[in-house]
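Researcher: Here's the sequence for the chain we discussed earlier.
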Amino acid sequence: LEDKIRDLEFSQSDQQNIMLEMERRLKESEKIAKQMSLQSGPPICQAFTVIVRQGNRKLIWNITNNNEIPPAIWTTYQPLGDDEGEPEVLPSHVTKVSTNDCTAMVTTLETFCAYSGLYTLHTEGKNTGKVTVKLDMIDHILNEATQ
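Model: Thanks. This is the structure I predict for it:
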């Protein structure tokens, strides 16, 4: 009976030590997670707006960020004079992703502008670094098959 009591006491002591170690690890991981969330901060949001005065154009956005993690990227359209309505999210076409001297990532995005209006490129990310945008506007020629 005394041996069983000693075994139970040893088992209980061992379980208490395991629980204390688990609590210590949990507190340590919570502390690290809190430090990381404070360092990363809130998402950085940027918007680059272009007024397109005539339709049938193509915008070519060259987005550069100085981090491996690219920002979220989307474009919106709002007709001129429609200040009350919500902008419409447009489909975008990524044509190229490359690195610039291993220090920056460059993403090339094309947006077809069927109508005149406000076209806005939005970027959002936590650790994207500095984001810059270079814009080119060209006439968009549709390839139509003749019969």
